[in-house]
């Protein structure tokens, strides 16, 4: 069975990493580790947009086929065709990234709420790991593989795969 490795990279708040790791392991039933890896998002900063190129950050990381590596960051991510992304991962790839930047209530002028932020981070992490397992976006509104363009849409979906996505996910990790 493959393992999942979370890599904090300019991630805030750091105190959420252990809870994120534990919940992912419970949900996915796959060993989840936190490891450090050389990662420099500042190399991929676009001064005009004041954002970081998510695709270039991913491409700068080593490809380790035996594990799924998920970068966890607090920098604001984009890819050229979108104004921003909560996260990014290639279908069937081994590297993904999520950002807490626009998942934090503070970004929307609301008070800090670690519980809400953690819930959203868990959903985005499961979602990107789903893409790494070859899953596309799902039409079930409450499936974690539903596409979310806003933080409100992240709140609407659950942290779980629908039965069909779940069986595909298991098939990927058990082969
Ligand atoms: Zn997606
Ligand atoms: Zn689904």
Automatic annotation (TrEMBL):
What biological process terms from GO does the record include? proteolysis
Task: Work out whether the entry's keyword set contains Oxidoreductase.
Answer: no
- Output the superkingdom of the source species: Bacteria
> Known InterPro entries for this protein?
MetalloPept_cat_dom_sf, Pept_M54_archaemetzincn, Pept_M54_archaemetzncn_arc/bac
- Name what cofactor the protein needs: Zn(2+)
Single GO molecular-function term?
A: zinc ion binding
Question: What are the UniProt keywords, alphabetically?
Answer: Hydrolase, Metal-binding, Metalloprotease, Protease, Zinc
NCBIfam families, per the entry: archmetzin
The name this protein carries in UniProt is Archaemetzincin
Origin species, per record, is: Caldithrix abyssi
